[in-house]
Amino acid sequence: MMLKEKYLPLVSGWTHSGITCVIFLAVICCRTVASDVKNAESDEHSVCWARVGHSYPLKCAFELFDSSFFNNTKMLEIVKGQKEFNIPIFTANRKLIASVNGGLHDPSYLVFSSAWGSEQSQHVTKRFKYPSLSGIKKPRSEQDIAFMSILELGELIKTKQITSKELTKIFLKRLKRYNHALEAVVTYTEELAYKQAKEADKLLAQGVYLGPLHGIPYGLKDIIAVPHYKTTWGSRSFKNQVLDIEAWVYKRLKSAGAVLVAKLVSGSLAYDDIWFGGRTRNPWNIEEFSTGSSAGPAASTSAGMVPFAIGSETAGSVTYPAARCGVTALRPTFGTVGRTGVMSLSESLDKLGPFCRSATDCAIILDAIRGKDPDDLSSRDILLDDPFSVDITKLTVGYLEDAEMEVVHVLASKGVNMIPFKLNYTVDSVQGILNFTMDVDMLAHFDEWQRSGKDDVYEAQEQWPTELRRARVIPAVDYVQAQRARGKLIREVRESFTVDAFIGNATDWERVCLGNLVGLPVIVVPTGFKNIPNPPPNNTTRRRTTITTGIYAPPERDHIALALAMAYQSVTNHHRQQPPIDDLGPNDPIPSPPTSSLS
Hints:
Elements lengths: L2 H9 L6 H14 L12 H7 L4 H9 L8 H26 L44 H5 L3 H9 L5 H19 L2 E4 L1 H16 L11 E5 L26 H8 L3 E6 L9 E2 L2 E2 L1 E2 L2 E5 L5 H8 L6 E5 L5 H7 L2 E4 L19 E6 L2 H11 L26 E4 L5 H9 L3 E4 L9 H16 L1 H5 L12 H8 L4 H21 L4 E4 L4 H10 L3 E10 L12 E9 L5 H12 L30
Parallel strand pairs: 2-3, 2-8, 11-12, 11-13
Antiparallel strand pairs: 1-3, 4-5, 6-7, 8-10, 9-10, 9-14, 13-15, 14-15
Helix pairs in contact: 1-2, 2-3, 2-4, 5-17, 5-18, 8-9, 13-20, 15-17, 15-18, 15-19
């Protein structure tokens, strides 16, 4: 009789978690080959843990997970992570939602849909009505042109003060000049850019104007596929990968007349700011890194290397780099923007969103890229009101203890009813639920990558390699329990969300996890600057630490967050400031980074 056939029935009712059980089985297996476990029958559980330092029992245990490809060091690392991280979350989630049998309460939010994904919505999305600009004149300097808003640049093109080809040349030059300092670009799409710019100019000459994105350059995070160009996912394992896929979001922007000038850095496999070519830096303080996997979109937009860029968030990859680099960025309601052709971490968490100069620009980009993607089962035609038509004086907006009070005072002065607020919920495993969901989903997408040992060459071993090895031993039951706990969190947040929106820190980790699990939209808004830590003598540096806040709205109320952010930015200019990059100030001990003089 096979080992599994003989002993699995003996432990089928055992309630210990995951690898604890299989190590017990492995110990039994080893009794046939090792003479030093004669007394193991008296305390199987203690023997199970006492023997984990021996390679053979561990190997047997991992064979039951079909995971014997791990070496001894990695197996011990996984066991340690299972005890210290996974099992406490198992316990918390079971206590929260698994104490009553029958599944009558707290359903999983892994919802099955019988639709085959090819049905088109009959609803026709109503587009926003943008404010019209007049009297916009072309600045003399390319530096000033580079920091104009999308509407301003669009007006220059529409009135033929500048061509798309000329604008494309300006931004390609800036990308090449500053990328040496910031390490924010993976691939220049120069040939494609000039082709698209030429087409935009040709259409305009024929009297065809596609809207505010007509002829406007932009960048895509390099997890978004574009045919004929590398889509590296930021990883040395995939740095030569070319996908013959046209991402849905790229199609939307192309149809709006926008011009792709670069594939911008994603942290390796969408984790943080480290990638196979280096580590992306913050234009406001090049001694710092940008944080978050949408590092390239944030840094490039901040530095005026592109007017806008598309990034993504699963757990903080829009909010963190936007806050660090001092740009306005929107994490929209989950399902607003289609993800076909985009590397997936977690189908129930991944979102695409814009990095821009302003909230107005974010609204324009959202309007262009939202809508039902027929090949993304999670995308929807969400009925958003026009943010340019929202009467903010009819809104009640809460502010948390960590809100930037300047935003509160400005909005109050504009007639918004501002009140103190606290979001209440009882779920105490929010961060663990997000990690379970993201890590298990991610491992499902990169199973072969781990099994073949490609994780050994990953750029930062303490990141995905460690997390995904730990995810390998999360039992299916406890993954589903985490989704049930997520459902309870969603219901509690919905009941507690008694205001139209609230203001609070955009990078509080608990709030980042909660917002992504629930699907809340948030817009990150620059609110000022402060001195860098440990500035040089006489504080002569121009480097600064950016200050930002988040404006949060309920799902499908992105227009409210956008309207409030636009109201705040209409009377402030923090979002219009230009970072020093290579002009750090006299006597700054940090040497100015090398920049290219490419023309």
